[in-house]
Amino acid sequence: LSPAPVDEKPPASRPRGLRAFFDDRLGLESIRALGRKKTVPIHRQTLSYFLGGMALFLFVIQLVTGVLLSLFYSPSADTAFESVQRIMTEVDFGWLIRSIHSWCGDLVIGVLFLHMLTTFIMRAYRPPREFTWMTGVLLLGLFLGFGFSGYLLPWNQLAFFATRVGTAIAGAVPLLGPELVRLLRAGENVTGETLARFYAVHVAILPYLTFVLMGIHLYLVQKHGMSIPESVLKQRGSADRVRSMPFVPHFLLRDMVGWYVALGLLAALAAVFPRELGEKADPFGVAPPGLKPEWYFLFMFQTLKELPAHVLGMEGEVLGVLFFGLCGLAILLVPFLDRGPRSRRVLVVLAWVTAIFFAYMTHRGVTAP
Amino acid sequence: MNRRRILMAVLLACWTVHASRAQHGETKPASAPAANTCLLCHSDPERFSEEEKKFLVHEKDLATDIHWQKGLRCADCHGGNPNEEEYAGAHSKTAGFKSLKNRADVPDFCGKCHSDVNFMRRYQPSARVDQVTEYWTSGHGKKLKADGDPKVATCITCHGSHGIRAVEDLASPVYPTRVADTCAKCHSDAKHMEGYEHHGKPIGHGQRELWKESVHGLAMLKRGDVSAPTCNDCHGNHGAVAPEIGSVANACGACHGKIADLFRETRMRHQFAEVGLPGCATCHGYHDIRKPSDEMLGAGPGSVCAKCHADQKFGATPAGALIAKGLRDQIELLKADIHEADGLLGGAERLGMEVRASRFELGNARTALTNARSLIHTFAAPPVEKAVAEGRAVTARVKEAAHEAFAEHKSRRVWLGWSLGVIALLIGILVVCIRRIPLPSAQERNSSPAESGR
């Protein structure tokens, strides 16, 4: 008689630490292997690689602060303003959490704009990274949606009227305009129903979509690795000859320096410039003077404001909305529009025009009375 | 000639009905208009000499006339036969024609309908029917009855004759914003008012100008507040007369009820009455009532209290002056507290602190100040002191909250400093770690699996 075969190693021959315990069950070794395998190229534009990680870090801060705020926030027209007021005055560190959430919303959109700009300049959308670019552009759109929907939630006078103006712009979309306005407002006017809808969009729909798109985006980044600019490739001959560093720990440590800097900046902004709450929304009140949207919508708002009532037989606002819609579509399809040196030159010129237009109209919006 | 007249009458009738409908959306008059030949003559200016111009009726006036709009026609007021084209027949006394030759007949002429509740009910269920009765009690009515004075106002002086607009019509001479001008047609005419007296004193003719600059006039004329009082609110409408000394406070109290109630309970009221001083008006004036200020209170040179108490006129005592000074001091104390609390809150707000609840609470201190100012009309210190104490309790809480906000702001800066210190320390540790782990050389990198960077 021989003993039954045992496929387990004798206890003495394997490490029995906590790490091994989790490794056996979660397959951490494969994740570590992935980390070891992932590298980041080193060249003059390496700094731009930090922007994606920075955006991700800021998104995590938004998630954490957003969840904390939701513990005290009450999404109804009667109580929303008061609940935010309570967060600001009575809840321990509530003012800090709200201010960080609000400032971080601005920072994450700023970082995403920069991320998109550097990706465009480096032409990192080149095949096979077309979908990485497209998911990135869509993520930027989702974050703009976070900004728009979150702006109304304190239910103050400025937010109320800005949302009324903002949602009314959707009415200029040909054919679907009135339906879109009703969909956004949950009715004909901005009311408590709109607030409930915006809250649901802000804390449920947009986060789900963001998780999905971000998952795809990160998977694609992982699959295709970091893109190396053409100029660097040309200089070094091939990708293999470009110097690189491991993601873990070299790049991660550098990434963390950026995160801490961002955290310090956020803390300083929140403490020195806490976000004001304003006056409670009064649907029958007068719109506050100098009504303006958030800075990232200002260029669109100002353009629509300055457009003549009629242009080429069309309503100015309709033309403006169509123009911005086409611009968004063009940005989404950049990888497919870049089809050679000539189209590339056109794209670069258009990008410069867009950047200057964005800066100029934002400036006009900021300085407008 | 007859056919032409009939055609003209039909056209005129069509036009007036159309004008009436266009003006007020009237769809159907109370009674269908009968044939009306009166205007064939009375609208023709060539038929009347200068002395007879009063018989001329303008068609445009009739279109806006409330009676005309309600379907009433010439004969409903004047009698006569509107179907008769000849003068004698149309103005026949047997047909009920009434000649309005005397000014004194006007009130009863209008009162024929306006004092008839059954008639008026047909047009307005809650219409007043006591205007004529009131009129005969007014200064105007009494003068008319006693002296037959042809200069005093009657119904048509204020309301007009042909072209009487509804009272709520913005163009009506008795619409609130126009009342002062309507009264001023006579009362601002020095020549017209010459010889008229009230209690042995000339009535004068500057009332409208004084009222226009008063707090009430400015409220109505500048701010468009039609609830602000004008002539008729204090003097009455049809029974217009100057309030007597003892009833001035009641006239003011019609709007300023709380203050009138407070004044009614005071000893000052009786003292005023004893020496023949009217309540309210002695301190606040008559037609030129200015916005009251705290400077009116106290024993200083600008105060109205000092007018009597400084020289002990009308039985006023120095002790009263001391009370007045005490009241003023109380008011100033609360004002200073509110100002200070407001400034502190402003400072906290500028630092970005959330002090909205305290800002709201400060409103209670302002309410207490208003209450204290009202209670001055008790001319006693305790009620004012109590109201001031309530206000100061609020300002004390607000100031404390503002100081807490400053302390909170300071602690935030300290916490920020510490947090930034910790973050800097962590960044320093990371930098040390980064320096201790050198970047792999190209050789090392090439030996590791490469990424597909393109």
Topology:
The complex is a heterodimer of chains A (369) and B (454).
Chain A: H1 18-26, H2 28-37, E1 39-41, H3 50-70, H4 80-89, H5 94-121, H6 130-152, H7 157-170, H8 177-185, H9 192-224, H10 230-236, E2 244-246, H11 247-272, H12 295-306, E3 310-311, E4 314-315, H13 316-332, H14 334-337, H15 341-367
Antiparallel strand pairs in A: 1-2, 3-4
Helix pairs in contact in A: 3-5, 3-11, 4-5, 5-6, 5-11, 6-9, 7-8, 12-13, 12-15
Chain B: H1 2-24, H2 38-42, H3 59-64, H4 66-69, H5 74-78, H6 87-90, H7 106-114, H8 117-121, H9 131-137, H10 139-147, H11 155-159, H12 176-187, H13 190-193, E1 197-198, E2 201-202, H14 207-212, H15 215-221, H16 231-235, H17 248-253, H18 257-264, H19 267-275, H20 281-284, H21 305-309, H22 318-350, H23 356-375, H24 381-436, H25 442-447
Question: Would you kindly provide a written description of the structure presented here, covering whatever features stand out?
Answer:
The complex is a heterodimer of chains A (369) and B (454). By secondary structure, chain A is mainly α. Chain A has helices at 18-26, 28-37, 50-70, 80-89, 94-121, 130-152, 157-170, 177-185, 192-224, 230-236, 247-272, 295-306, 316-332, 334-337, 341-367, and strands at residues 39-41, 244-246, 310-311, 314-315. Chain A is globular and about 65 Å long. In chain A, 33% of the residues are buried. Chain B is built from 25 helices and two strands. In chain B, strands 1-2 form a two-stranded antiparallel ribbon. In chain B, helix 9 (131-137) crosses helix 10 (139-147), helix 22 runs parallel beside helix 24 (381-436) and helix 23 (356-375) runs antiparallel to helix 24 (381-436). The chains are: A mainly alpha (369), B mainly alpha (454). At the A-B interface, helix 4, strand 2 and helix 11 of A face helix 24 and helix 25 of B.
